[in-house]
Amino acid sequence: MGLFLAGLGLFLAAHMIAWPKGLRPALITRFGANGVKLAVSLVSLIGFALLVIGYGQARGEAPPLYDPPIWGQHLALVLVPIAFVLTAAAYLPAGRIKVWTRHPMVAGVKVWAFAHVLANGDAASVVLFGALLAWAVGDRISLLRRERAGLLAPARLSKAAWAGDLGALALGLGAAAAFALYAHPAWIGVAVVPG
Prior knowledge:
By secondary structure, the protein is mainly α. It has two domains: 1-61; 63-195, no CATH class. 76% of the residues lie in helices and 0% in strands. The chain has helices spanning 2-15, 23-31, 33-61, 70-89, 96-101, 104-119, 123-148, 161-188. The longest helix has 29 residues, at 33-61. The radius of gyration is 18 Å and the shape is globular.
């Protein structure tokens, strides 16, 4: 569990660099924007690798904290594709999905993490998905605070708004289906759709 917690801590710390007021600008002044991006990327990558390896080990040893309700597992099947659509919307021209959620990637992480808390009751899963859910809530607050301070501009509808929305739906739902049918069983070892 130590490797898992170390990876989770590094990964989240790298993604929380903008939370303390003035920390990111101070680091950019000292090390340059590219230096900060490189450091954050390296710490994120190392943390993610440790997290994946550690979670794989911890999941087999983790005691159950609760028995997930069957409705929670069914609800997760609805919520996870929504999370994929939100994530896709973050990288496409600003459509109504992006403008309405303001920060679709963070919204996608919240929905995805919440779905997995509903569907998994072992200690490792609760720590992982609970921590990512807490991070996403905190990051949303940080992003909104930066918007109010004028440090971050909210998304505005692009000229290709309909393309952004249709693309998010197509890419998100396609990726969710592919992940559920192939990647989740192969990488995580858990079949999403019973076969």
